[in-house]
Design brief:
With about 325 residues, the protein is an alpha/beta fold. Helix content is about 20%, strand content about 25%. Strands 1, 2, 5, 6, 7, 8 and 19 form a 7-stranded mixed sheet that branches. The two termini are about 20 Å apart. It catalyses: [thioredoxin]-dithiol + NADP(+) = [thioredoxin]-disulfide + NADPH + H(+). Its EC number is 1.8.1.9. InterPro entries: FAD/NAD-bd_sf (IPR036188), FAD/NAD-binding_dom (IPR023753), Ferredoxin-NADP_redctase_2 (IPR050097), Pyr_nucl-diS_OxRdtase_2_AS (IPR008255), Thioredox_Rdtase (IPR005982). Keywords: Disulfide bond, FAD, Flavoprotein, NADP, Oxidoreductase, Redox-active center.
Length: about 325
């Protein structure tokens, strides 16, 4: 029987592990098949506090893992959770080869950015293709050059407006003839002289050079069927995220998009189950906010466990 199981190994999961381990809970961290989460697909991280020269995403995640282990966290690397049973009483976490039981569980499973699924996108990820303007838009390689955002909602508009601080111009490509964003956000975008909307258009290919860096896009006009090309230094895909919460459906409250609902900090609808990071947060989605939520979840879990009756109390 485990005191605490943490599912997920991004910033939220490792921060929760650090705090829980320092509280002598000896947490067990299940990393999943992508240890480190989305930051392992990021090159230079310049906005995480404490690193004035920036730090490579994978390096940051390894450092967090080592810090958690130093205080006594245990790790099941590359283990996959197939399903869970999170009802009252002891929680069950089912892996491919075993069933684990715990008094409390922290869900830090993150969210996956939706992809365009076009040729070149995967190959050029971190080499010009990004899913977070706040993370990568200020990189020196992109400054004062043309950048592209794909999407038409509030997130895409926010990304485009943010990028105007660094880009020579920002192309906002949308498959419809009007934005889905809120009117105030749409007005800001359409009135910004640096943003050029490209309507009724989709990306059909992400193009790179021999050095493996993005150089442009192939486009198709959905009305005229006309093919064209667009030169750019960076592509930011902002068509939404999918939280990795499928195996928790029907066990804890999720919103209509699959994000975990929390209350009073990090508590879910099920006692003893806490959640942190991008599986909860659809607004900020930053490493530092995920880390803060991981801290909250660990503290909430510690208080929950402290309040459980001991065998002598029963």
């Amino acid at each position: 029987m485990e005191e605490l199981i943490i599912i997920g190994s991004g910033c939220a999961g490792w921060t929760a592990a650090i705090y829980a381990a320092r509280a002598n809970l000896r947490p067990l961290v299940i990393t999943g098949t992508e240890p480190g989460g989305l930051l392992t697909t990021t090159t230079l991280v310049e906005n995480f506090p404490g690193f004035p020269q920036g730090i490579q995403g994978p390096e940051l995640m390894v450092a967090m893992e080592e810090q958690a282990k130093r205080f006594g966290a245990r790790v099941l690397s590359m283990a996959t959770v197939t399903h869970t049973r999170l009802s009252d009483g002891f929680k069950q976490v089912v892996l491919e080869d075993r069933v684990l039981k715990a008094k409390a569980v922290i869900l830090a499973v993150g969210a996956r950015p939706k992809h365009l699924d076009v040729p070149g996108e995967t190959e050029l990820e971190t080499r010009g293709v990004s899913y977070c303007a706040t993370c990568d838009g200020a990189l020196p390689a992109f400054r004062n050059q043309a950048m592209v955002v794909v999407g038409g909602g509030d997130s895409a508009c926010e990304e485009a407006l943010y990028l105007t601080r660094f880009a020579s111009e920002v192309y906002l490509i949308h498959r419809r003839d009007r934005l889905r964003a809120s009117p105030i956000m749409a007005n800001r975008v359409l009135s910004d002289p640096k943003i050029r909307p490209v309507w009724n258009t989709v990306v059909t290919e992400v193009v790179g050079c021999d050095e493996g860096k993005l150089t442009g896009l192939s486009l198709r006009d959905l009305h005229a069927g006309k093919e064209s090309s667009l030169s750019c230094a960076a592509l930011f895909v902002a068509i939404g995220h999918q939280p990795s919460t499928e195996c928790f459906q029907g066990q804890i409250d999720l919103d209509e998009h699959g994000y975990i609902r929390v209350h009073d900090g990090s508590r879910t609808s099920q006692p003893g189950v806490f959640a942190a990071g991008d599986c909860v947060d659809f607004t900020y989605r930053q490493a530092v906010t995920a880390a803060g939520m991981g801290c909250m979840a660990a503290l909430d879990a510690e208080r929950y466990l402290s309040a459980l009756p001991t065998p002598s109390d029963a």
